[in-house]
């Protein structure tokens, strides 16, 4: 009896020892985790940045499915296949592996349709699949380029006012103050400043329409737009020559009464601007802007809150040269 009791104690000790050991030092090969595909999102968009025209033509049929694979990160694009609801294989246009661990499969498909994503696990030679549906309406059917263009047109005057009047004409920084040579003798009033801005706006910007917006990329989270534009800039050298010429004439007429000289010059600058037409040129320029999808939606519904979306830098650069 004693020997049996001893054997039980030894066996119990060995079992407890094994349990404790494998809790501290688990053997990975004993339990193998099964990979699972988790769908995060399925939507429409563009991924091709090389040929914007082709991309825009395909916008109505281009979709992606975003997902991650749990318990496995050793995979590449060749491990995936895509099938429609009839079992026909759909070519994968592009496979993306994102920095956050998610993946995207891009393909040409249809709205409101069921698809199956298949993952071929090379480690255990097994297939894992998951079903998903494309959205009922392609989110890019409302031309994003038109959304951006409409917003810029609607807010152009307000944005130009903020950039030119608020930040250049009506600011007080000595480094960029266009009235720095006048202020020792005369300080322009708000009405006079507004008149100068209004003349600049009416003469050079108000009827400006030579620009267009083109969407060049639309991914799962953001859009890229290229703005091509042409602007006949004012000849600032000629404009300033006229102002200087008038200033010298007034000094001869009014002598050392510099306050009267500069007060009259400030009052006449709007007329000088209106009488100096822009200088014709054929140069086309491009700018690029990026918008997250929520920002694009905010443009659509009028809740965009990040200030000026776009105006040409030339507007600010030109006005900054006024009356040096």
Short structural summary:
38% of the residues lie in helices and 23% in strands. With 324 residues, the protein is of the alpha+beta class.
Task: Give a structural overview.
The protein has 324 residues and is α+β, with helices and mostly antiparallel strands. The protein has 3 domains: 1-31; 36-133, Immunoglobulin-like; 144-319, no CATH class. The chain is built from 8 helices and 10 strands. It has a 4-stranded antiparallel beta sheet with strand order 1-2-5-4, with no helix packed on it. α3 (144-169) runs antiparallel to α4 (190-205), α4 (190-205) packs parallel to α6 (258-274) and α5 (236-254) runs antiparallel to α6 (258-274). The longest helix is centred in the middle third of the chain and has 26 residues, at 144-169. The protein is elongated and about 120 Å long. Residues 48-54 have low confidence and may be disordered.
State the low-pLDDT regions, or none.
48-54
One letter per element, helices H and strands E, the order comes to HEHEEEEEEHHEEHHEHH
Query: What is the rounded distance between the termini?
Result: 112 Å
Q: What share of residues is helical? A: 25-40%
Q: The biggest beta sheet, please?
A: 4 strands, antiparallel
User: How large is the share of residues in beta strands?
Assistant: 15-25%
Give the rounded overall mean pLDDT.
Answer: 84
Identify the strand order in the major beta sheet.
1-2-5-4
Give me the number of helical elements: 8
Radius of gyration in whole Å, from Cα? 34 Å
Overall SS class? alpha+beta
Number of domains: 3
Number of strands: 10
Shape annotation: elongated
What kind of assembly state do the chains in view correspond to?
single chain
